[in-house]
Design brief:
Layout (H helix, E strand, L loop, with lengths): L3 H24 L1 E2 L2 E2 L6 H10 L3 H13 L6 H31 L3
Antiparallel strand pairs: 1-2
Helix pairs in contact: 2-3, 2-4
Length: 106
């Protein structure tokens, strides 16, 4: 595990690096639905393509081609997004459980 200052620096740099992708995702409408600011455009391309939308399948192929140095970039972005979300939920659940235990609530 990274020391806290390095961990914070890595997280801040990651968030800064993904801002353009998140803005594109948020501004990109699909019918009546805009994307989430919590999801990169790459991750959205993957999940929408998995749902069978041919337009998103083409977008996923384009993004994967642009990010040629990484095998299946969009799928990896989607998996990373799920991993981050799972860690956040687990952290919040632990804090809630610990606070309830400290207060004597069961």
């Amino acid at each position: 595990m990274l020391p806290l200052p390095l961990y914070i620096m890595r997280e801040v740099l990651w968030h800064l690096a993904t801002i353009p992708s998140r803005v594109i995702n948020t501004c990109h409408r699909h019918g009546e639905v805009s994307g989430s600011m919590n999801q990169t455009f790459s991750a959205r391309c993957h999940i929408e393509a998995m749902c069978g939308d041919t337009r998103w399948q083409r977008r996923e192929r384009v993004v994967n081609a642009v990010c040629f140095w990484e095998d299946d970039h969009c799928e990896r972005a989607w998996t990373a997004m799920l991993t981050r979300a799972s860690k956040t939920v687990a952290y919040n659940d632990k804090r809630l459980y610990d606070n309830r235990a400290d207060a004597g609530v069961t």
